[in-house]
Amino acid sequence: MFTLLENLPNELIIEIFGYTKICDISFGFWNLNTRFNQLIRSLKYISLILTRNQTYEKILLSEQITRIVIVTLDNIYLKPFINLRSLKLNLATENHLKQIQSEYFLKIKQYNT
Question: What is the domain partition of the chain in residue ranges?
Answer without folding.
Answer: 8-43, 44-113
